Amino acid sequence: MASRSPSTPPHRDGLSRRGFIGRTGAVVAGTAAASAPLDTARAAPQSAPAQQGENLVAVALTVNGRSVRLMADPRWTLLDTLRERLSLTGTKKGCDRGQCGACTVHVEGRRVLSCLTLTASVDGEHVTTVEGLSDGEHLHPMQRAFIAHDGFQCGYCTSGQIMSAVALVGEGHADTDDDIKEYMSGNICRCGAYPFIRDAIKDAREEMR
Amino acid sequence: MTSVGTDVDRVDGPEKTTGRARYSADRVLPDMAYAHVVLSTIGKGRIRAMNTDAAAGAPGVLRVYTPFQPLKLYPPPPGYGETYAVLQDRDIRFRGQVIGLVVARTFEQAREAAALVTTEYDAQQPSTSLAAGSPGVTAPDQGQGAPPAKFAVLAPGVTSIDQALAASEVTVQGTYTQGSQHHVAMEPHATVAVWQDGHLTAYCGAQMPQVHAVSLAAQLGVEADRVRVLSPYVGGAFGSRVATWPDIALASAAALDLDRPVKLVLAREQVFTMVGHRPAVSQTVRLGASADGVLNAVSHKSDVAMPMPTVGSWVMVPAQDTSGALYKTPNLAIDQRVVPLDMPPTWAMRGPNEAPGGFAIETAMDELAVSLRMDPLRLRLRNYATTAAGTGRPWSSKHLRECYETGAERFGWSSRPRSGTVDGQWLVGTGMATAIYPAARFPAAVRVRFRDDGTAVVASATADIGTGAVTLLSICGSDALGIPLSRVEPRLGDSALPPGAPAVGSAGAGSTAPVIRSAAQAAITALIDLAVTHPDSPFYGMTADQVRYHDGYLDAGAGRSMGFARLLKLTGTAGVEATANGGPGPEAGQYAFHSFGAHFCEVRGNRFTGEPRVSRFTTVVDIGTVVNAQATRSQIVGSVIFGIGHALLEVDPLEDSGRLAAGNLGDYLVPVNADIPDIDVHWLDIPDTVYSPFGARGVGELATVGSAAAIGNAIHDATGIRVRDLPITLDKLLG
Ligand code: FES
Ligand code: FES
C-alpha cells in the first residue's frame, strides 16, 4: 500500500460538514487524555510501544478536532487505532466484523463502522468519537437524553448507539418511530434498551434542531 | 426524603454515555502485549502434532504456547467452571477448544500469527445428537436443599402419574424443543492481566469478583490473596460471567511468564465456544384436567444436552421451578435428565431453567385451554396455587392473581380481537403466559464509611452487569443515612471489597439492599461512639443514647447539632466505618420464595410470508419492593426482549461435526430495534418482608420466563399453527 503524504489530504465532495463543524470547537478540551500517546507518536513513531507494526504508512487525520499523525500498520482498523493507539476507548468492539454497531463513529459527519474501516483509508479525514461529543462535563443533548430515558443498562453498546442516534437526526431518519426503529437496527443492544433509546432520540432531536 | 422506589438516573450514566467508563479491554498499559487464542477445528480426538514455526517467527511475536509448550495451569475449583485446564493435554473435547495462545507486540501481529499455527489431529466422530441420546440419565442432584431432579407427588391411592393422567377427563401432551442459545453479552470476554511483585491484578468482567479471584488463583496455582479482580464496568453478562472461562487464566499466566501486561480479548466467534452457552433441550409436558379445567395431573420431563464430564458445565433443570411450582395439582411428576454430548461447555443463561421450562408448561397450558375451549387466563386462575407443591409451604408473598388482573386490564384482554382476525396482510392473535422465578437470598457484606468531606462510601464486592447495582448502592445508602445521593460514593466490582452478593439469580439487589441498612446503622453507631469518646468532640462525655443521628447530623438536642464531616474534622478523623453481614435466616426453611408475573401480547403473522411480528406486549410483575423504578422498568423490558429473541430468533445448531454453526452475530440473530414494540410494564410494589426486612426480591430474570410462551400462544391464536420447536421462524408458519 502506498503511503500518502499527510499534508495533502484527499478531497471529498458532497458531504455535509455542518454537524461536525458545529461541534469541533467544543471537543478540544475533551481530548486531553489522548495527548500523551499522540505526542509520543509524533516524536518517535517507530519506537513508541503503542505504534509498533509492520510496513508502516504515514496517516494524518483529525480526531475530535485534534490533528493526529501516526505511522500505521496497514492492517490497523480505525477502531483498533482509536482504542489501542490513541487511548480513545469509548468506542467499543462488539464483533470486529460489522455485525453489531458498537464501534460506530463519525467520519466526515457520516456514521461508519470503525471495525470495517482501515486507518489508512481515512487519511486526511475528520473523525468524531463519543469522547468528542461532549464538552467536558457539558453533555451533548443525545447523551443527556440517553441518561434521562435510561437508554442503556450495561452501557457497552451505548457509544455506538449514541453516535448512530446523533447521525440519524442529521440524516433526517429520526422523524417517525418506524424510521428510528429501522435506522437504529444496525446497533445491537443485548440488554434490550430499544424502547428507551427511541424515547431518547425523540427527546434529543427537538433540542438538536 | 428517600429516593427508594422513584425514577433515579443511573449514577454511572455520565461515564457510560461519554465513553469514560472503562470496561476490561479498555485498559491500555505501557509495554502491554496482546494475545490471541487458537481453537480446535475438530469436534473430538487428539492432537498429533502442531507446527508453530511460522507463527513463532512472525513479526512481533513474543511467544507461542501450545500443549507441547504449555503455560502451567490447573483446573478451576469444582463448580467454578470447566473441569479441565487448557493446554495441559492433547485431548480435543469439543470444537472450538483452546489449543494455543500467541502473544505478540500488537493485536494485529498476534491475530495474524495465530492463523499461521497448523495442527494435525487424530479425529474421532463426536456424538452431537440430543435426539439420538435421549432419554438421558437423571440429572445430578443440585444440592443446597434443591428438590431432586426426579420426583413425584401423588394423591392418596394414585400409584403413578400415568394412572392419574389416564383418569383425567381431558389430557394434552406436547414435546417442546429448542437448540443451543448464547448470552451474547455485547462485551466480548476480555482480560488485561498485570503482575507486580508477585501479585496479579486482572481486569475482567465478573458477576462475582471474589469468586473470580478465588478461581483464578486456583487455576494459576497461587494463593488467593495474590489475586485481585477488578470489574467496575461489565458489558453485559446474563450468566456468561459467573464462571471463569479460560481467557482469564491464559492472559494471567502469559503475563507472568513474559513479565509484562497482557491483553487477551476474545474474537466474537471465539466467545461462542469458549464461554458456556444454554444447551439444547427437549421437554415433554402432559396435563390432565377435568372438563371444566381443574388440573388433576402435571408431568414434565426434560432431556438437556450437556458436555462430557471431561469438560464440565452447569446443569439445566427446567421443570422444578416452573411446572413444579406454578399450579395447584394433586398429582405432579418431574423428571429432569441430561444427555452427555461432545459439545462446548454450557452455563446458566438468564432464566436458566425457568425460561425453557416456562416455555414448555405455559405452552402446554395454552394447548389445554384450547382443547377445553376456555379462556387461558381463566384456566390459570382456576388452578391458582396457594402453597408450593411437594412441601406444602406457603409463599413468603404471592400476588400473582393481581398481576393477572392488572395485566388483563391494561392490555384489554377481555376485548381482545377474536382468534385469527385479519388486518390487511396480517393475521392478528393474542396470547398470555405466567412468569415465575425463584427468589434466592445470598449472604452479603457491605461496608459504610463516613468521610470528613461529608460524603459516605457504600462498598460491596458485588457487580453491576447493567442491572443498576451501583445506583442501588447509592440509593440505599442515601436512604439509610439520610443524605443526598450526590454525597454517596458507591463502590463495587473489586474482589478486595467486603464479600458482596453475587450478581446472579436476580438476587444481587435483594441480598444487598437489607445489608446496606444494617451497615449504615453500624456505621452510625461507630460515629456516635467517636462523638462521645473523643475529647475534641462537642459531644464528649455524653452517653451514646443522648446523641441521635439524622440526615447526616449528630444531634444532642437543645441546639447541639453537628454534621458528621465537621465532627470528623474536629476530631482529626479521616473516616469512621463499619461492615455488616446479612443473609437468609430461619424463614428460608419455612416458606417458598418466588417472584411472579403475567404476560399478555399481540402478535401479527404475515399471511403471505409467514413473518411473525410482536406488536403489543404488557407485563405485570410481583417482585416486592422496588428500589429504582427506572432501572426496574429497564430490567423488565430487557427481559421481555430476551424472551422475544428466545421465541422468534435465537438458535445455534450443533452440527454432526461438533461445530456450532451460527457462531457470529450475523448468523446467531438477537433482537434489534425494529423487532421490538413499545412494552407496557407495571409492578405491584408490595414489599416481601418475609424475604427480607427491606422487602425487595429482585427482578433481573423474571420477565424472560413465560414471554416466549405468550408469543407462541399468540401466534397460534393468530394463525392456528402450534409451533413447538423454537425459534418460531417464518418457515414454520408457511405450513
Ligand atoms: S465491532 Fe464493529 S460492528 Fe461490531
Ligand atoms: S446497554 Fe448493554 S448492550 Fe446495550
From TrEMBL, chain A:
Pfam family, one: Fer2
Domain 2Fe-2S ferredoxin-type: 57-133
Keyword Metal-binding: yes
Molecular functions per Gene Ontology: 2 iron, 2 sulfur cluster binding; metal ion binding; oxidoreductase activity, acting on the aldehyde or oxo group of donors
InterPro entries: 2Fe-2S-bd, 2Fe-2S-bd_dom_sf, 2Fe-2S_ferredoxin-like_sf, 2Fe-2S_ferredoxin-type, 2Fe2S_fd_BS, Aldehyde_Oxdr_Iron-Sulfur, Beta-grasp_dom_sf, TAT_signal
Keywords, ordered alphabetically: 2Fe-2S, Iron, Iron-sulfur, Metal-binding, Oxidoreductase
Source taxon at top rank: Bacteria
Protein name from the UniProt record: Xanthine dehydrogenase YagT iron-sulfur-binding subunit
From TrEMBL, chain B:
Positions of transmembrane segments: none
Domain Aldehyde oxidase/xanthine dehydrogenase a/b hammerhead: 18-125
Coiled-coil intervals, chain numbering: none
This protein's name: Xanthine dehydrogenase YagR molybdenum-binding subunit
InterPro entries: Ald_Oxase/Xan_DH_a/b, Ald_Oxase/Xan_DH_a/b_sf, Ald_Oxase/xanthine_DH-like, AldOxase/xan_DH_MoCoBD1, AldOxase/xan_DH_MoCoBD2, AldOxase/xan_DH_Mopterin-bd_sf
Key words, A-Z: Molybdenum, Oxidoreductase
Pfam families attached to this UniProt entry: Ald_Xan_dh_C, MoCoBD_1, MoCoBD_2
Entry's Gene Ontology molecular function annotations: iron ion binding; oxidoreductase activity
Tagged with keyword 4Fe-4S: no
Residue ranges, annotated region (Disordered): 125-148
Protein's UniProt keywords contain Electron transport: no
Species of origin: Actinacidiphila guanduensis
